[in-house]
Amino acid sequence: MGYSVYRVAWLNEDAKGVYVGMYGAVSGSHFSYHRDGTCHFKLHDNRRTQTTFQHAKLPIQDIRQHIQVLNQCIRLNDSDMFIIGHSYATTEKDEAEIFIDGSTAISGSISLDVSLFRRENTADYVRFVYGPNDLANSQKLIAMLIRHLQYFPEHRVGLVLSIPTLGESETENT
User: Fold this and answer.
1) Strand, coil or helix: what is 18?
2) C-alpha angle with apex 159: 155 to 161, nearest 5 degrees?
3) In the predicted model, what is the mean pLDDT of the chain?
4) 108: left (phi over 0), alpha (psi -120 to 50) or beta
5) 3-state secondary structure 96-162
6) Domain map (residue ranges) of the chain
7) What pLDDT digit, counting tens, does each position of 113-138 carry?
């Protein structure tokens, strides 16, 4: 018998920007943060591509401190689970994939936060994620990924996965 995990998200980068896709979403759907600061969701299906949630933020080269570029709730479902050791399909967009232990998904969803920051501010970003903040009492950190960017070498991308924590009354009943 194998061990259950979820494939949660993928991360990719090219000269145009940084891309994050969520497994379990419509095939090929992703969030983009482009070099010029344009960001959007693209939803793909067999017939068309639909762009939603498009707006402008800072161009990547102007980002100094960390800025949150995406906060997304991802619903976890069994089609995203697989057993370690079994083969699974990848695509050319899977430059980096994020997995979580299936037992951490007790709420049926997970929060994905994506931030961009200059590489010299990495320590500040880590202190922010692990330090006291507004979500400290309501979210449990599951995973954190910091990735160097090849096309934007002065910057990094940070991905944080968290789940809602159980309140005291819920904890007592479990």
Assistant:
1) strand
2) 165
3) 77
4) left
5) EEEEEEHHHCCCCEEEEEEEEEEHHHHHHHHHHHHCCCCCCCCEEEEEEEEEECCCCCCEEEEEEEE
6) 4-172
7) 999 999 999 999 998 888 776 555 67
